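// run 5 | inverse folding | seed 20
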């Protein structure tokens, strides 16, 4: 699947205690993104989805899916792999997530 539309790249914002602190103090926003997306695609998607926002940097982390118990099925299961992106915006820019 081609990641042509910004909604194919950016899946959902991550609203945890740690990400909220980063948003308030360092102007960094955290999103769950497609595992195939690179930093350039993430930057372009954020700037298209949220107008009047300039992205300064993009940091990404890949997470392996956790293993889960078999529960009598006979083989263990696994959650899906996922990717997290931390977006730093230019000073004064904000994204209204809620």
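// decoded
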């Amino acid at each position: 699947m081609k990641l042509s539309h910004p909604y194919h790249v950016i899946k959902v914002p991550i609203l945890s205690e740690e990400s909220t602190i980063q948003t308030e103090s360092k102007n960094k926003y955290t999103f769950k993104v497609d595992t195939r997306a690179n930093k350039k695609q993430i930057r372009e998607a954020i700037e298209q989805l949220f107008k009047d926002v300039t992205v300064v940097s993009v940091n990404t982390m890949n997470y392996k899916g956790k293993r889960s118990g078999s529960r009598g099925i006979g083989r263990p299961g696994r959650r899906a792999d996922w990717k997290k992106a931390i977006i730093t915006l230019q000073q004064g820019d904000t994204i209204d997530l809620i």
